[in-house]
Amino acid sequence: MFNFALIGAGRIGKMHAEIIHAHPETNLKFVYDVNSEFANEVANISNAKVVKTPEDAINSQETNAVLIASATPTHIQFIKMSAKAGKPVFCEKPIDLDINKVNECKKELKDIKSPIQIGFNRRFDLSHSKAQQARLNKEIGDLEMIIITSRDPSAPGLDYLNVAGGFFRDTTIHDFDLSRFILGDDPIVQVSAFGENLFDENVKIAKDFDTAMFILKSKSGVLIHINNSRRAVYGYDQRVEVFGSKGMVISNNQTINSLERYTTSSTSSKDLIHFFFIERYQQAYRDQFNSFVEIIKTNKKPKVTFDDGQKALIIANAAYESYQNKKIVDINYD
Ligand SMILES: NC(=O)c1ccc[n+]([C@@H]2O[C@H](COP(=O)([O-])OP(=O)(O)OC[C@H]3O[C@@H](n4cnc5c(N)ncnc54)[C@H](O)[C@@H]3O)[C@@H](O)[C@H]2O)c1
Q1: Separation of 30 CA from ligand 1 center, angstroms?
Q2: Using a 6 Å cutoff on CB, does residue 70 contact ligand 1?
Q3: Tens digits of per-residue pLDDT, 222-267?
Q4: Residues 182 and 147 in one domain
């Protein structure tokens, strides 16, 4: 049994706690959150102990691995603390909002062997990963275009917006990573980004975007289009199209059930798609965790590494530069 320390017991922390508790080989041992009410609520899932400091959770002899699901600006301090204590780390995306802090962290931990996995859960979605396999196996011939539609059902509140770090670094970062995943060893080299505030008052107050579009280009010339919205009245809209010389694969939206209605007023009418990420990516979050448990056992390289987190942030930063300067930006990973 591997004992876990969970840092951060908010929206996604609670979901991770349930996954840790349900896994036959892991146990939720300690929970730390600056908000002890949240910590208590999550600890109740599995009789975990609520501790007063992150050190109590991470450095305990009883802790075998750490799962970081706290607010983004706190990730790096907990990654460092865990890795230096020799514990395998799973950390939610993004690693941080400041690339200098990410680079410094990488340097500081370069001789430390603790595996660090970053929470780009979409790589573990069965349909998205089949689309990636279709590209790798050349089922669609030579890859020419990737089109990603990623729209949330509704915008988050102001509290979240104020700490999340902006649409491109917090949300589109998933799509930048998914593009990198499908492209494999063909790096993204250019980005052009547009952002607008069309409908959400809180987003306006936070000086953020609720609508965005991107065109990116890979080194071999593959073109990638990403479109994001913070509001889709029909649910969490997640579609990936991978197009090549011999055809196309689509990872489409998934409805809660597969019933189709045929009536006098419509045909092929389906129930709604999943509401949001916890429902839509349930299988991916579980498989992501299963993969991390294998890393704890084998000490192998995680399927999503610290470098993947760093590169996705570099692309997000280049996207902001493109938006601000109204130009296509070359991406430099050095
Ligand atoms: N992979 C995904 O699909 C996904 C989905 C949602 C959120 N996230 C990421 O997970 C992280 C948390 O997001 P959320 O939606 O759960 O937010 P949230 O606001 O619901 O939860 C964050 C929690 O962190 C706690 N916290 C803040 N500072 C802390 C500190 N210094 N020490 C310990 N706890 C602290 C807060 O009290 C809160 O309980 C963010 O980095 C976010 O980007 C990832």
Answers
A1: 17
A2: yes
A3: 999 999 999 999 999 999 999 999 999 999 999 999 999 999 999 9
A4: yes
